[in-house]
Amino acid sequence: SHQWRGIIEEYRDRLPVSDTTPVVTLREGGTPLVPAQVLSERTGCEVHLKVEGANPTGSFKDRGMTMAITKAKEEGAKAVICASTGNTSASAAAYAVRAGMVCAVLVPQGKIALGKMGQALVYGSKILQVDGNFDDCLNLARALSENYPVALVNSVNPFRIEGQKTASFEIVDALGDAPDIHVLPVGNAGNITAYWKGYKEYAADSVSTSTPRMWGFQASGSAPIVRGEIVKDPSTIATAIRIGNPASWQYALAARDESGGLIDEVTDREILRAYKLLASQEGVFVEPASAASVAGLLKAAEQGKVDPGQRIVCTVTGNGLKDPDWAVAGAPQPVTVPVDAAAAAERLGLA
Ligand code: F0G
């Protein structure tokens, strides 16, 4: 028996590494593909959840970051920088620790979840809160990486896409072929770009017989790709995807069009409904942005766009513990009882 070695060792022949590349890993990837019983019943399909919150820092970003930091180390970088809505920065900070590098982080002030801020802090990154949104942070990070000795590890770094494409490999390896539809939340659009690249590579090498239709969902208040124009002041409770000018916009359109897919929007209300359903009906606790994929699938099903009998994978991108405010908000305070079995039994409805 052996333990999962991380995406670079598991998919070495499909990634741009050599025998001398210094692999920086936390054994990311190898995440659960969980059958979703209630979603399957609701859609008449075979729905699976790719649970990316099970990665070492709690999001899919670790797949891209092991590659980006490995290549930065190979090239001799001493410091890395990223703009982030919180997950990229948590991941960059952790992998920088493993690589012995300095990590600089730019986040939109007041707009990242507490758990993610805690991660960047405890991993020891240098954090600046920027008086602007994610798009402003990314412009600043690009400018700094062009003018100072610091490597950019946002998904505009092609090695990030290379690492993230391995999620598609895992899904095909687990199912025996590509699904019919793959559903993702879309923010900066790196992940939908990466999944599509992975599916295409496996199909080109006949590991799979087909590629899925790629379905991406943005939050309504932050839906530039759906609207066809930059959103100057993006808003949504799903702070991870609060992005008005996605860097991989054109690649997302290509993934949609080449695959015969779609990119649509879901409201915050729909996101929260899917968020609660995932936890209370499927036992999978995700952060709000992650629920956008499932919200999108449910919306499409209600619109009659989902033919029954299809095999569908929804990626749920981040762990619910990153942003637990939404789990607690609106829920009743638990009742306090004395240390008394009869009283506890009565309150629990057991008596
Ligand atoms: N879901 C989560 C939990 C995310 O953190 C992100 C992006 C996305 C979905 C969207 O993925 O950008 O590849 O389309 N988070 C970035 C960050 C922007 O800084 O952590 P995408």
Automatic annotation (TrEMBL):
TM region(s), chain numbering: none
Catalytic class of the enzyme: lyase
Catalysed reaction, written as an equation: O-phospho-L-homoserine + H2O = L-threonine + phosphate
Binding site residues for pyridoxal 5'-phosphate: 87, 187-191, 317
Record-annotated Tryptophan synthase beta chain-like PALP domain positions: 24-318
PROSITE patterns for this protein: DEHYDRATASE_SER_THR (PS00165)
Gene3D superfamilies associated with the record: 3.40.50.1100
GO biological process, one term: threonine biosynthetic process
Molecular function per GO: L-serine ammonia-lyase activity; pyridoxal phosphate binding; threonine deaminase activity; threonine synthase activity
Family annotation (InterPro entries): Ser/Thr_Dehydratase, Ser/Thr_deHydtase_PyrdxlP-BS, Thr_synthase-like, Thr_Synthase_bac/arc, TrpB-like_PALP, TrpB-like_PALP_sf
UniProt KW keywords: Amino-acid biosynthesis, Lyase, Pyridoxal phosphate, Threonine biosynthesis
Record pathway: Amino-acid biosynthesis; L-threonine biosynthesis; L-threonine from L-aspartate: step 5/5
Named cofactor requirement(s): pyridoxal 5'-phosphate
Protein name: Threonine synthase
